[in-house]
Automatic annotation (TrEMBL):
The protein's required cofactors: heme
Family under the similarity heading: Belongs to the catalase family.
Transmembrane intervals: 17-38
Name of one Pfam family that matches: Catalase
EC number: 1.11.1.-
PANTHER family given in the database record: CATALASE (PTHR11465:SF9)
Key words, A-Z: Heme, Iron, Membrane, Metal-binding, Oxidoreductase, Peroxidase, Transmembrane, Transmembrane helix
Record function comment: Has an organic peroxide-dependent peroxidase activity.
Protein name: Catalase-related peroxidase
Amino acid sequence: MNHVPDFGKPVVNRRRVLLGAAAIGGFLAVDLGAVLFATNTIGTRRLTPKAILDALAPPGGRPRGYRANHAKGVAVSGYFDSNGNAEEISRAAGFAPGRTAVLGRFSFGGANPHVADDPSLARGLGLAFDFPSGRQWRTAMLNLPVFPDKTPQGFYERTLATKPLASTGKPDPEAMPKFLAAHPETKAAMDIIKATKPSAGFADSTFRSLMAFYFVDDQGVRTPVRWSLEPMQEALPAGDGDDRLFDALVRQMRAGPLRWRLLLTVGEPQDPVADATVPWPAGRRVIDAGTITLDTIETDGPGNGRDINFDPLVLPDGIEPSEDPMLSARSAVYAASYRLRAGETPSIPPQVQVDKVEEVSQ
């Protein structure tokens, strides 16, 4: 195992990160939401954040106080040890050798905060890096090899195609085949996803940005990058019960911190930067930028990762968005969801209660 340099564990400045989350979340809900999807329409109407949120809502409506997607989760915190390698392609201050505090959240996809753990569901990891000079870097990653949709319109239509009908409680059996026939890029992406066996748990999952960004150096040179977190440990075996993957994660973090390598995959001129349904070829150059360590896990609650809007467009100087239309869409929808839940009291308690997870007898 590679040696991890000891920079001294930082005090995680939750107040500063969370205040930034509130300010940025509110700003984006007004500005980006107002101009979202200028070229995307639903029939003759413009596609809006509200339309996406309505499509994501389960029968009976969205549970108050929860995210519109990835509602079930737990909060984590830790730090990022940069080894300085990323300075070659980015001037972001947090890539200089040193340690940066991190707040985050593991989650399962979907709007149900009490959904039963299922290894086939998309797993998420959102992180907020407290970079120097008050500049934050936020990223919402998935354990998928590619993203299923090329455009916001495609995401919206696929969401509707999988939405249960009020009359049957199940999706229209004709909706998804019809959607895939009209969206061959999604069919190809889903074939890749289905062929990729999910890992045993959260601790051994590889989490990916999926969408491309530009890293910008001191000379203004822009390099296309997709990043991933490569696990440095195996996962504890999951037991039984609706929270078996989360319970295993809690038990493992009680025993010691979990670590991932931050890997930056450098794109070539022919690689797509505006279509996350297409994987970049194997063999692309990879820069090991350092190690992310997560050493604290908590029940979703005030003052931790529950309250952070993991907006992919909250970027430090030295990282810029690509032309991928999904980035502005995600940013605006995340902001609209954030603004809704920030003013609500949760209608039901979080499913995963960290302090109540019992140890497994040997």
